[in-house]
């Protein structure tokens, strides 16, 4: 599924405008942080018809500034890409938590990859804030950890009832 083209107005930044049901992974198995970023970059590259190496390099550069492990078992790896016109999200619940060098030093099991347009403006920051607010909520994180499948994860994070996606 290709990401829609064209900008989204700042006020329209919602999880629904960033994440689609087909971009949710339940029970992802990876051996560590580097393998996770590589896997997510490959998946995003296929969906966006972009180079996986360029996406991975942007993610690694951002992680070099400081971990995007935001605490509470949640990571929000993100990067800006010239080729994007609107935010692109991918949510993964890991099968086994892993060390992500998070600010609270807890292992991470909920990961939201967020790729943002390189263009300056409020939309990228609004998208990042929208995702961070939702995933940092302890009740939401607990519910996501209890989801049985990708559809359940999407329903919980988007606020849409199952079967309405």
What's the gist of this structure?
With 165 residues, the protein is of the alpha/beta class.
Give a verbal description of the structure.
The protein has 165 residues and is of the alpha/beta class. Strand 2 and strand 3 (74-75) form a beta hairpin. Mean pLDDT is 87; it is low at 1-11. Helix 2 crosses helix 3 and helix 5 (138-146) packs antiparallel against helix 6. It has helices at residues 15-18, 33-48, 52-64, 122-136, 138-146, 150-158; strands at 24-28, 69-71, 74-75, 78-81, 88-98, 108-117. It contains six helices and six strands. The longest helix has 16 residues, at 33-48. It has one domain (11-156): Mannitol-specific EII, Chain A. Helices cover 40% and strands 21% of the residues. Strands 1, 2, 3, 4, 5 and 6 form a six-stranded mixed beta sheet that branches. The two termini are 15 Å apart.
Set down the secondary structure blueprint.
Elements lengths: L14 H4 L5 E5 L4 H16 L3 H13 L4 E3 L2 E2 L2 E4 L6 E11 L9 E10 L4 H15 L1 H9 L3 H9 L7
Q: Provide the CATH superfamily.
A: Mannitol-specific EII, Chain A
Q: What is the CATH architecture descriptor?
A: 3-Layer(aba) Sandwich
Order of helices and strands: HEHHEEEEEHHH
In DSSP terms (H or I, runs of 4 or more residues), the helix count works out at 6
Largest sheet, strands/sense/barrel: 6 strands, mixed
CATH topology: Mannitol-specific EII, Chain A
Helical content stands at: 40-55%
Shape field: globular
State the total count of DSSP E strands.
6
Mean pLDDT equals: 87
Radius of gyration: 14 Å
The helix/strand class is alpha/beta
């Amino acid at each position: 599924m290709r990401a829609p083209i064209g900008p989204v107005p700042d006020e329209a930044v919602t999880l629904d405008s960033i994440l689609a049901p087909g971009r949710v992974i339940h029970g992802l198995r990876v051996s560590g942080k580097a393998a996770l970023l590589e896997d997510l970059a490959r998946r995003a590259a296929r969906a966006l018809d972009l180079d996986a190496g360029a996406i991975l390099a942007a993610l690694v550069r951002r992680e070099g500034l400081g971990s995007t492990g935001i605490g509470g078992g949640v990571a929000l790896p993100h990067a800006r890409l010239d080729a994007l016109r609107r935010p692109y999200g991918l949510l993964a619940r890991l099968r086994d938590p892993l060390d992500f060098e998070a600010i609270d030093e807890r292992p991470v099991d909920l990961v939201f990859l967020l790729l943002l347009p390189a263009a300056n403006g409020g939309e990228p920051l609004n998208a990042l804030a929208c995702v961070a607010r939702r995933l940092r909520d302890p009740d939401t994180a607990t519910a996501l950890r209890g989801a049985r499948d990708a559809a359940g994860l999407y329903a919980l994070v988007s606020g849409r009832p199952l079967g309405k996606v």
